[in-house]
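Exercise 7. Given the encoded structure of a 154-residue chain, write a plausible sequence.
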């Protein structure tokens, strides 16, 4: 089997693996392998094929990392609806309790509610208004739900 075919088969295997991971990094390496195959098709020696594949893979990975697709989102797990499916769900709070702060500041509003068949501690988000009614979960800190007046605030 010709050398360029092996390069293309290896690139194809990485493209299939990329479909499982969806990170795009394996795709960048697959592009490098495909360019190694082009170098083999052009008649370059094995050392040049390896060099072309490595340089193209590294350059493609670097460019991906610098693009918006390669940057990680900096959302905390406790506020990320992809991690905690409760984020954005609605809860009903009948009565708030005002806990005075020990440092003389305003304190915080807390409550106990039944959510998903269990009792939860609820804390009012700093931007929310303390009133009875419907609230939306913005964050989960341990066993405490942080709620706000609208679902868009998280």
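Solution.
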């Amino acid at each position: 089997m010709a050398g360029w075919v092996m390069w293309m088969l290896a690139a194809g295997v990485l493209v299939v693996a990329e479909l499982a991971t969806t990170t795009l990094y394996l795709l960048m390496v697959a592009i490098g392998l495909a360019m190694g195959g082009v170098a083999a098709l052009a008649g370059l020696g094995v050392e040049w094929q390896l060099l072309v594949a490595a340089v193209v893979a590294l350059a493609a990975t670097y460019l991906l990392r610098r693009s918006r697709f390669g940057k990680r989102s900096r959302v905390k797990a406790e506020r990320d609806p992809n991690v905690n499916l409760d984020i954005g769900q609605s809860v009903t709070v009948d009565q708030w309790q005002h806990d005075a702060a020990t440092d003389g500041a305003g304190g915080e509003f807390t409550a106990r509610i039944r959510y998903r068949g269990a009792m939860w501690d609820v804390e009012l988000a700093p931007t929310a208004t303390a009133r009875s009614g419907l609230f939306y979960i913005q964050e989960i800190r341990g066993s405490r739900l942080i709620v706000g007046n609208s679902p868009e605030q998280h």
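Remark. Helices lie at 3-21, 25-41, 46-66. Students should compare their own answers with the one above.
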